[in-house]
Design brief:
Layout (H helix, E strand, L loop, with lengths): L11 E3 L6 E3 L3 E5 L3 H6 L10 E5 L4 E2 L3 E2 L8 E3 L1 E7 L8 H4 L3 E8 L2 E2 H10 L4 H4 L5 E2 L4 E2 H4 L6 E6 L2 E7 L7 H11 L7 E3 L7 E3 L4 E6 L5 E5 L1
Parallel strand pairs: 3-15, 5-11, 6-18
Antiparallel strand pairs: 1-2, 3-4, 7-10, 7-16, 8-9, 8-15, 9-12, 13-14, 13-17, 17-18
Length: about 230
Amino acid sequence: MQLLFPAPAPVTLPVQGSDARFPVRRVYCVGRNYAEHAREFGHDPDREPPFFFMKPADTLRSDGIFPYPPQSQDVHYEIELALMIGTGGHDIPEAQASAHIFGYATALDMTRRDLQAVAKKAGRPWEAAKSFDHSAPVTAIVPADQAGDLTGSAITLSVNGALRQQARIGDMIWSAPGIVAQLSTLFELFPGDVILTGTPAGVGAVVPGDVMEGRIDGLPVLTVTVA
């Protein structure tokens, strides 16, 4: 097969304790998966279930740098648990969904909040707000058999040492297996898919020079400098 120009390099993520890397296929994101976060934006989590949107694979970045994006003056952090799919499927039963998760990582879903507000008001898609370059900083992946059960793990985000977000993974409206099961009814999942599972309350803005530190008990610490 002849290509008109060189194909883009595949997006891969490091795996803790391994020389092998995780090749990324798609990045799915869950909206409003923590009740308090839904409420802080004026939504009723008992009436509005989480929904899904996507980021391009190459928005993932593991070098600890977040370049402040153009065309925005209000860029927010959102700390999230990332699920890495190791075996795919369609209509996966929730009771079997955990077996499809290869591992976990700590991630950020960075958001141009001002552009998102404009898009919401106009009823337009969120790509400019959510899918911009470098918008998903992420750590190395911890295989599921090493991470264990993360339900009781604390998830926190600090900016310049000040705690901004705090919850537990068990506070999610949809659990990790529930997310995998539900998403697989909408899309056939494949090895290499990544799922960002939503953020707790307390999101807020950053500016160049800020240092964000995201923590999920049992996973690597995500330290990211806004450049």
